[in-house]
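Box 3.1 A note on notation
Throughout this textbook, protein chains are presented in two layers. The first layer is the amino acid sequence; the second is a token string describing backbone geometry. Keep the layers aligned when reading.
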Amino acid sequence: MSSETTPATAARGGPAYVDWEFAKATGRRLVPAGPVISRSEAAAEVGAIRAAAVAARGPVAETSRLHTPGDLPDAVVLDRPAWIAANADSMASLMDPVLASIMAKAAARKGGGPPPAAIGAIGGKVTGAEAGSLLAFMASKVLGQYDLAPDGTPKLLLVAPNLLQAQRELEVDAADFRAWVCMHEETHRVQFTAVPWLRDHMLTTTRALALDLAPDPAKLAETAGQLVQRLPAVFGSGGGGIADLFTTPEQRDQVARVTAIMSLLEGHADVVMDEVGPSVIPTVATIRARFTERRKGAGAVDRVLRRLLGLEAKMRQYRDGAVFVRGVIDQVGWDDFNAIWTSPETLPSPQEIEDPAAWVARVHG
């Protein structure tokens, strides 16, 4: 890959509204160092994580009753800078077409063309620095993810230093913790590979939402003037982060629909990782209890950042989604629960996430 452009920008030949390479460089500079271990210990940890990812496939398929093609690539075990690079590329593929559309509309309203190259380059560096700062913060938190890779090959990512650091902080069995995390992330892989339409649905929905949420430049000054007065609302219970300050009620309804899907995906993965049970992960109950406490955030600064970035809402996705999934399974069992993957129409609404019986009544009658 060229160090000058991201694949998405190069393919279009257009201006870089976000300098993603600068974002990667910023993220690498800002991300905290991981646990200090020797080269041999690091190699052993990476090998153990890879083995745990492979071992998770059978139990996840058996528990979820979902099955995927057998020729999928193995999990990629990486460090924090590599996670930043992978996510910057995916963000570029997802967001650059959205940004190009927004800028084209703004230029059309003004009756002019794109900004001069020098101004565009400066703007790209500014937004790249912002993106890199966010990626640096997240890179020390994420244990793993299924990267949808909008313009590439989806892959399962596992962040080795974060798994090791979390396991040490929680003081839980290392092998059990690796297995437990891999069960969660393997479930995400299964969701998007056993349900062929889900990846395109999520990418299309996310792009459409991002385009709709783009602020109207004419209203930015008004919104900025209200920022101080409305900022306390971000810290109230139930807030979705600083984005709540810039959205209309209709847009928040759209966000709620996407959040309901994310709650389903995260809750389903949480239920599967716990349902695998002590026969595979002997200390699963201890890990779950300690990890639940960890999700609340370690310190005051961390909690403030989580609230501002909407990560508190992310934590609720795990909780609400798991309650929904367990509620449905208690009523109809795993096989009938899997009717949820039939089509976009069978996914739960925001109201149904809080009322599993309503989903059962709508889908199963």
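The mean pLDDT is 82. The chain has two domains: 1-196, 215-365.
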